[in-house]
From TrEMBL:
<dbReference type="GO" id="GO:0005829">
    <property type="term" value="C:cytosol"/>
</dbReference>
<comment type="similarity">
    <text>Belongs to the ThiD family.</text>
</comment>
<dbReference type="GO" id="GO:0005524">
    <property type="term" value="F:ATP binding"/>
</dbReference>
<keyword id="KW-0808">Transferase</keyword>
<keyword id="KW-0418">Kinase</keyword>
<dbReference type="GO" id="GO:0008972">
    <property type="term" value="F:phosphomethylpyrimidine kinase activity"/>
</dbReference>
<dbReference type="InterPro" id="IPR029056">
    <property type="entry name" value="Ribokinase-like"/>
</dbReference>
<dbReference type="InterPro" id="IPR013749">
    <property type="entry name" value="PM/HMP-P_kinase-1"/>
</dbReference>
<keyword id="KW-0547">Nucleotide-binding</keyword>
<dbReference type="GO" id="GO:0008902">
    <property type="term" value="F:hydroxymethylpyrimidine kinase activity"/>
</dbReference>
<keyword id="KW-0067">ATP-binding</keyword>
<feature type="domain" description="Pyridoxamine kinase/Phosphomethylpyrimidine kinase">
    <location>
        <begin position="13"/>
        <end position="257"/>
    </location>
</feature>
<keyword id="KW-0784">Thiamine biosynthesis</keyword>
<comment type="pathway">
    <text>Cofactor biosynthesis; thiamine diphosphate biosynthesis; 4-amino-2-methyl-5-diphosphomethylpyrimidine from 5-amino-1-(5-phospho-D-ribosyl)imidazole: step 2/3.</text>
</comment>
<dbReference type="Pfam" id="PF08543">
    <property type="entry name" value="Phos_pyr_kin"/>
</dbReference>
<comment type="pathway">
    <text>Cofactor biosynthesis; thiamine diphosphate biosynthesis; 4-amino-2-methyl-5-diphosphomethylpyrimidine from 5-amino-1-(5-phospho-D-ribosyl)imidazole: step 3/3.</text>
</comment>
<protein>
    <recommendedName>
        <fullName>Hydroxymethylpyrimidine/phosphomethylpyrimidine kinase</fullName>
        <ecNumber>2.7.1.49</ecNumber>
        <ecNumber>2.7.4.7</ecNumber>
    </recommendedName>
</protein>
Length: 266
């Protein structure tokens, strides 16, 4: 049996809704073998981020080499990376091991407002990570930072996607969770073409980790051999159900339900 192996390079969320924990749950639910390189530990729950403890650079390098020398992934994603130095290290290792299908979730700020990326690290994402990436999945505020423009309309989103693609990444997906439209529309840009993936928008407080889960689902599908178009469609179904069937745990912004897709489709 050939096993699809998916890697997440991200921060740990002690509350289990975002970061490494959301990624590994999503990989498992979609039938990919999950592996992790932890960049930082956060003390986090549904009420917010209460502490951030970065892993030292050598520790990150050693984790990447442990994976690279023995367990090459068929696809990987990045999440919370923290600093420019860490981003450069990761980009070098991706190039060194020639890992395919790199999905970059350019995590900058948690929904509660905590900063998860240093300001000077944005340039490192553009200069080092996007040139080795296949897909990048910014939400609207992240796309505004990457494209250095404000986004108030679909036309703005399209211009931002073109700008972000110019940094060398094949597919740009600007997600619509932060939009105020009646439906949740994700804009996909690839090879000069735009496509809109539209889903129902649910009114809920339980959207902690939506971006992590969405990008992890794309990664799991790519690891299993799906095309990018198919992988993104499954990821949209996965996150839509995870939001719809929310768990109602914790007293703040609760996590999504990583079991919901399996219950519906498997
Ligand atoms: N309330 C919602 N109802 C339905 N889909 C949503 C909702 N909020 C976010 N999504 C979807 O979840 C995914 C992640 O989007 P988003 O929340 O913008 O990411 P992030 O967590 O990075 O801010 C996207 O596919 C988006 O359309
Ligand atoms: C450790 C860690 N990584 C990433 C995030 C941000 O996750 P995201 O999916 O964007 O969800 P919200 O923070 O917006 O709920 C995080 N919080 N922690």
């Amino acid at each position: 049996m050939s096993v699809a192996k998916a890697l997440t390079i991200a921060g740990s969320d002690s509350g289990g809704g975002a970061g490494i924990q959301a990624d590994l749950k999503t990989f498992q639910e979609l039938g990919a073998y999950g592996m992790s390189v932890i960049t930082a530990i956060t003390a986090q729950n549904t009420t917010g981020v209460h502490g951030v403890y970065p892993v030292q650079k050598q520790g990150i390098k050693d984790q990447l080499d442990a994976i690279g020398k023995d367990l090459p992934p068929q696809a990987l994603k990045t999440g919370m990376l923290g600093s420019a130095e860490v981003i450069e290290t990761i980009a070098e290792k991706i190039a060194h091991y020639q890992w395919p299908h790199v999905v970059v979730d350019p995590v900058m700020v948690a929904k509660g407002g905590a900063k998860l990326l240093q300001a000077d690290a944005v340039q490192a994402i553009m200069d080092h990570l996007l040139p080795v990436a296949t897909v990048v999945t910014p939400n609207i505020p992240e796309a505004e930072v990457l494209a250095n423009m404000s986004i108030t309309s679909l036309e703005d989103r399209k211009r931002a996607a073109e700008q972000i693609a110019s940094y060398g990444v094949e597919v740009v997906i600007i997600k619509g969770g932060h939009d105020d439209s009646a439906t949740a529309i994700d804009l996909i840009y690839t090879n000069g073409q735009f496509e809109q993936l539209e889903g129902k928008r649910y009114s809920t407080n339980n959207t902690h980790g939506t971006g992590c889960t969405f990008s992890a689902a794309i990664t799991a599908q790519l690891a299993k051999g799906s095309s990018i178009t198919e992988a993104v469609k499954v990821a949209k179904q996965f996150i839509e159900l995870a939001i719809k069937e929310d768990l109602h745990i914790g007293s703040g912004h609760g996590p999504t339900n990583h079991w919901a897709y399996r219950k519906a489709y498997v």
